[in-house]
UniProtKB/TrEMBL annotation:
Belongs to the LOR family. Coiled coil: none annotated. It comes from the Eukaryota. InterPro entries: LOR, LOR_sf, Tubby-like_C. Pfam families: LOR (PF04525). PANTHER family: EXPRESSED PROTEIN, PTHR31087. This is Protein LURP-one-related 5-like. It comes from Trapa incisa.
């Protein structure tokens, strides 16, 4: 099996969490597998470009991580809880919320909500007219990210997450702030790894934890049976 992450190096910790200066983008290898290698677990293990463990999500039941469960907890490499990710049940607009820390036992409130992810409202007739006027050149927005209680989205997701080909764009400027792509094997760059392993590149000056939380939510949205409310693929 090809190595999915580089050799371990612990000197990236301060840069990863904003304690050190970094001028270039942060590059992560995302492995869609829990670091707790027990049968039936479902989660994420994320390595930085030097092989250090950056983020993890350990979920013991895919049903619990779905729409009716207690949420998923995004942790840093040491196991400290960063975000609790949970769907908003019975929402017409299909919303996932991210709360600071571990809120799986309760304590979720607007005061603790860091951001929310929503599927845009879709009106087929208007969307068709817009596409025709623009010649179909504008990428379709698959999801929108609202920071705190903001009424307008800060970021949008474009492309196909399921195919590991999408980007996160800042709405105010149109700049791409993060990109998800297929990852090639280290031994042979022409050989692409399975979809369970992919690359995440985040531009400097951004909250890597927020971006990774968004990635986890996108995975749930695109998993179909896990989230019957929407599919963002």
């Amino acid at each position: 099996m090809s190595r999915i992450h580089p050799t371990f190096n612990c000197n990236r910790t301060k840069e990863l969490f904003g304690e050190g200066h970094r001028s270039g983008p942060s590059v992560f290898t995302v492995w869609k597998r829990s670091s707790m290698s027990f049968q039936g677990t479902d989660g994420f293990t994320v390595f930085d470009e030097y092989g250090g463990l950056a983020f993890r999500v350990d979920n013991y039941s895919r049903k619990i991580g779905g729409c009716l469960g207690d949420g998923l907890v995004l942790m840093d490499g040491t196991g400290d809880a960063l975000l609790t990710l949970a769907p908003k049940v019975l929402s017409m607009q299909r919303v996932w919320n991210a709360y600071g820390g571990d809120c799986t036992g309760g304590g979720r409130s607007r005061a603790f909500r860091q951001f929310s992810v929503r599927e845009p409202w879709k009106f087929p007739i208007l969307a068709g007219l817009k596409s025709k006027c623009q010649g179909g050149a504008e990428p379709e927005v698959k999801a929108e990210v609202f920071i705190g209680d903001a009424r307008w989205p800060e970021y949008s997701v474009e492309g196909s997450f399921r195919r590991r080909s999408c980007c996160i764009r800042r709405r105010s400027t149109g700049d791409v702030i993060a990109k998800i792509s297929r990852k090639s094997a280290r031994a042979n760059p022409r050989v692409m790894l399975e979809d369970e392993v992919f690359s995440l590149v985040v531009q400097p000056g951004l909250d890597n934890g927020l971006i990774m939380g968004l990635i986890v939510i996108l995975d749930r949205i695109c998993s179909g049976p896990v989230s019957p409310f929407m599919c963002c693929c």
